[in-house]
Amino acid sequence: MSPSVPVLSFLKTTSEAIVALTTPTCREALVVGARGDGKTWSAFGTMLEHARIHHSKGFPLPTRWMSVRDYHERHRTTTIRSIQDPAWHGVWRVTKDEHLGTARIGGQILVEVDFFGIEDQGAMERLKMECHGVHFEEAAPSAVLVDSSGISETSWILAMTSQRKPSYCHPALITENYPDEDHWTWQRFAVKQHPGSQLFRIPPGERASAAQRAEWMRATEGRPDLRARLVEGKPGGLLLGFPVTPEYQEGVHWQATPGPLPAAGVVWLGFDFWHHPAVTIAVPTPGGQLQVRLACRMDNADVGALCEERVLPWMASHVPLAWRVMLTGDPTGETGDQSDRSKSAMRRVLSYFPQAQWLRVSNEPDEREAVVKTHLRRMLSTGEPAIKLCGPDAWELHKALSGGWHKTKAGLVVKSGPEGASSHVADAAAYLCLAFFGSALNRGDTLGRYKQQSAYQQAWDGAPEGTRSPNPALVGTAYGRTIGYDAAKWRKQYEP
Fold first, then answer.
1. Disulfide: which of 25, 294, 309, 396 matches 281 by Cβ 3.0-4.6 Å?
2. Which of 370, 171, 379, 344 is nearest to 271 (CA)?
């Protein structure tokens, strides 16, 4: 190799992102990481590798890219300083008042990059410039930059439609610190997993030194939201209060892809009513796990609209018509309307499911919380959790159990306003859990003696020593109480 040709070194995750983005199968990617771990290196390394392959396949140089931020000034203070690092060996030069970057190797210009911000509608027009590749830097707003709302998904889609210059592939990537879980970048790449997209999570400390990370840990003391995003490498969220369900663990209770529907023959629906109606739909597995498949709410609506616009279309596309339907929900919805006692939210739901059975449950807040908390702690004999949230349709409940369902310092659950939005889905799930599992408090039910227990390992209801963890069909839950499910099929799951 000629001594005039620089050698650039990239770390593991950055290299994986570069390789993926320079193949036609990866249309777009999100590269996220903690501070100082080389996210921007992924973008500009991709530009160089794409130009090399682009030229080897007979396309002319230079390639043209756009690199977009909310404000151009932030390019000056962050992005441009990153590519002027000595480790790049002078490959990148910036001219035209820091609006144009060029990569030159061996006298040949490989890449030209337009740096700009989209501060206003006029600046948005720049997204229509023809290019080969697209790079967005920090599309999600920083938690400390209150004057910015980041960059919209509309801008991202518009920029991707501008990749019209001929090439063997057209990479598009976003590099940023971890966003809020609700931000469109996390939803698009991590939750919904848009077709052709990939997510790359740089492990904390892959590039940043231990001394730097220790300093950042001290700096974020008392701000767990910032520490999660900037240091620990986790998606953040507004710290609202005291979570109702600290027992919930994303790595245990959540899976991003729904997987096949268990052959249960029955589906459970739990409702929360009034002007922010919510529903949770779950299916039990043969091993006794309750898999939540859909959780959603509608604001300023009624339960009829929720059923017609969300529940019925989802059921039609996911649940076999012959399956039995079990319904439950807020018992106040069983009360007749003030103007017509023959009408109620419960009867409205039953009108859509005339063959379903409605199970009445308690409306006590402590019972609703206890049943969810207890069964989040419980593990089945298979090592799987008793409750599992499956796929992006259950995202709203994931958000609720991750802290969106929260209390004030006085111990009251927040239910009103934007801060209380997650409580509706959480309540719908709690009603469903009460119907399916039974109460977790000592009020004469079979679960009482296991209150506050981290995992059910003892013999259940007088079963022989060595019997495995409990079988919901045999302990007085809604299965055994109302459906008469074939208990012999369940026992096989628990016999040694």
1. 294
2. 344
Alpha carbon dihedral 221, 226, 231, 234, in 10-degree steps, equals 130
> Cα separation of 358 and 350, whole Å?
8
Domains and CATH numbers, the chain: 12-232 (3.40.50.300), 251-491 (3.30.420.280)
Alpha helices per DSSP H over 319-402:
345-352, 365-377, 395-399
| 480: Cβ contacts below 8 Å, ≥ 6 apart | 472, 473, 474, 487
Asked if 295 contacts 394 with a C-beta cutoff of 8 angstroms, the reply is yes
CA nearest neighbour of 429 among 350, 369, 385, 481: 369
Asked if 261 and 276 touch (Cβ cutoff 8 Å), the reply is no
Those residues whose C-beta lies under 8 Å from the C-beta of residue 131, and which sit 6 or more positions away, are: 64, 65, 66, 114, 162, 163, 164, 165
Q: What is the mean pLDDT of each run of 10 residues along the chain (496 residues)?
A: 68 91 94 85 94 95 95 89 90 93 92 88 84 94 57 93 96 91 88 90 84 82 73 68 86 89 90 92 91 93 92 94 92 71 82 91 88 92 92 91 84 79 92 88 43 35 42 38 39 38
| Pairing assessment for the beta strands 100-105 and 92-95 based on DSSP bridges | antiparallel
For 300-329, b/e burial (b = at least 16 CB within 10 A) is eebbeebbeebbeebbeeebeeeeebbbbb
What pLDDT, on a 0 to 100 scale, did the predictor assign at position 148? 56
User: Distance between CA atoms of 331 and 359, rounded to whole angstroms?
Assistant: 9
Q: Is 371 left (phi over 0), alpha (psi -120 to 50) or beta?
A: alpha
Whole-model pTM: value is: 0.62
Contact call for residues 149 and 5 (beta carbons, < 8 A) = no
Bond into 62 cis (ω within 30): yes
The tokens of 45 are what?
């390394």
pLDDT at 213: 82
Q: Are 18 and 46 in contact (CB under 8 A)?
A: yes
d(CA 223, CA 216) in angstroms, rounded, equals: 11
Cβ neighbours around 277 below 10 Å, total: 29
DSSP H or E run through 408: none
N-to-C CA span, the chain: 65
Reference 408, options 239, 221, 278, 226; nearest CA is: 239
* Consecutive H or E run containing 137: strand 133-137
**CA 50 vs CA 293, 311, 339: distances in Å:** 40, 45, 68
- Enumerate residues 6+ apart whose C-beta is below 8 A from 302: 275, 277, 345, 348
- Rounded to whole angstroms, the Cα distance separating 473 from 489 reads 10
DSSP 225-290: HHHIIIII---B----SEES-TT--HHHHEESS--SPP--SEEEEEEE-TTS-EEEEEEE-TTS-E
